[in-house]
Amino acid sequence: MNRKTTAIVLAAGQGKRMQSKVHKQYLLIKDKPVLYYALQAFENSFIDDIVLVVGKDEEEYCQKEIVDKYGFTKIRTIVEGGKERYHSVAYGIKAIEWNCDYIFIHDGARPFINEEILGRAFEQVQKSKACVVGMPVKDTVKIADTAGFVESTPNRARVWQIQTPQVFEAELIKSAYERLLTEEVQLLSSGVVITDDAMVVEYFTKLPVKLVEGSYQNIKITTPEDLEIAGVFLEK
Question: Which fold has domain 5-135+161-235?
Answer without folding.
Answer: Spore Coat Polysaccharide Biosynthesis Protein SpsA; Chain A (3.90.550)
